[in-house]
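Feature request disguised as a bug: please show the residue count (190) next to Peroxidase-related enzyme in the output. Example input:
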Amino acid sequence: MTENKEPTALDLPMVDPLPAETQKYFDICVEKLGMVPNVLQANAFDIDKLNAFTAMYNDLMLAPSGLSKLEREMIAVVVSAINKCFYCLVAHGAAVRGLSGDPVLGEMLVMNYRVAPLDARQRAMLDFAAKMTTESATIEEEHRQALRDVGFSDRDIWDIANVAGFYNMSNRVASATAMVPNAEYHSQYR
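Example output, currently without the count:
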């Protein structure tokens, strides 16, 4: 596979030099992940946009929630599979493999979450995220109630909707700009 030098097809170089706080954040990424994810590098042409993106990501994916980190990554993968977003499937597929310790689960979610051995809670959550991705205008109270029936609170439903919404937006930006995943993701947790 040919390695791309730029994170997207757009000529938007990162700010150089990076502000101290941004450099510190990137250094933490290298320390924890072994790389700076290309999605961050892609946004680093405008530090305000990068900060907005990372604030939203960190709130949705890392902040306290009734959803586990794995469940949030599962939503990211299912939404990205429906949208056929190469970047997010590779990056978040690796996260599912890592968090679950199950490379097969990661592959199932990438291909077709309906074949995965999910519990009722996970299945309802992913069905809701899928419906939101393909036909959000048709969501009604019965769909929210189905989530409540398997133990999700209204706050959890808010989080499911926001994570799915974030990845629907991110998928479209990544696809439109031909964002490429970091090569390291492909072999992680296999």
